[in-house]
Write a structure and sequence with these properties.
Layout: H1 2-55, E1 58-61, H2 67-80, E2 86-90, E3 97-100, E4 108-112, H3 113-118, H4 121-136, H5 139-163, H6 174-184, H7 188-195, H8 199-212, H9 215-229, H10 235-239, H11 267-281, E5 291-293, E6 299-301
Helix pairs in contact: 1-5, 1-6, 2-4, 4-8, 4-9, 5-6, 5-7, 8-9, 8-11, 9-11
Amino acid sequence: MNTIRTAMLLAFMTALFMGVGFMIGGTGGMMIAFLIAAAMNLFSYWNADKMVLRMHHAVEVDERNAPEYFAIVRDLAANAGLPMPRVYLIQNDQPNAFATGRNPQNAAVAATTGLLQRLSYEEVAAVMAHELAHVQHRDTLTMTITATLAGAISMLGNFAFFLGGGRNNNNPFGFIGVLVAMIVAPFAAMMVQMAISRTREYSADRRGAEICGNPLWLASALQKIAARAKQVVNQDAERNPATAHMFIINPLSGQRMDNLFSTHPDTANRVAALEQMAREMDAPDPEPAPRGTGGDGTARDEGPWGARPAKPDERPKSTPGEQRWGRDAKGPKGPWS
């Protein structure tokens, strides 16, 4: 089903690309656009994940420089029965994360430093489990390719502005065609939002909760991310809005309503679905996040790389067969540990 959906989406995006080309340069422009779209489809299949990671200045990390973050992803991938994906970190104070890659064997997950610094260990695990669910459902190919093609359509619309609608070109619609092409470009992101079904987020939420073991961890994480995302501007995402649908929470300002054209379901609806799942699973309430004091002496939440237990005995104990997302106080330490 995902293969058919991907093929239909690529056909639609290619047709849209050709339509913009026709508005700019007539039949000749349409053929050029078709050749460009065909080449981009092929290129995107193999390289779109690298392009998206580069757009957001993601840096690959491993167990030497980010041991705890890396270990979370490794353990979750094992829980899900997935190959170990490449792990990336994005230097950005907005808590967020996304997954990319053409298949589980060539997948990558990325989290921002804001996510690691502001969420509890269990919440980070739940977020990365959600991203691995996208990998397992093979959503990442569609999400990544549509991001690339939507960006290309926007650029084609910008070309219309410079080419103009003079009599010397092959545009059969003249300046009207140019205007139409320029209007289509801003709606490219909306087309992506409509094409990427928001039910995928609900599905990834549910599977992610199964992978990490507690839906309430993810519910808590979504609430924290949504609240912080409204306060912190993600400049890379603002420059590349076609990639917004790839994140666990919309990184852009605005567009947070649960309507036909939003990239994500409303956070409250997602939390309600996870809480219902928790009741069905009889999942225990998550333990309160550790508390610390800021420079002004006021209490603040600590992420997994904040205050640590003073003694190893204070770390929560796990029962046989239970996954514990505790910290290895004796393990190697990196800059994000």
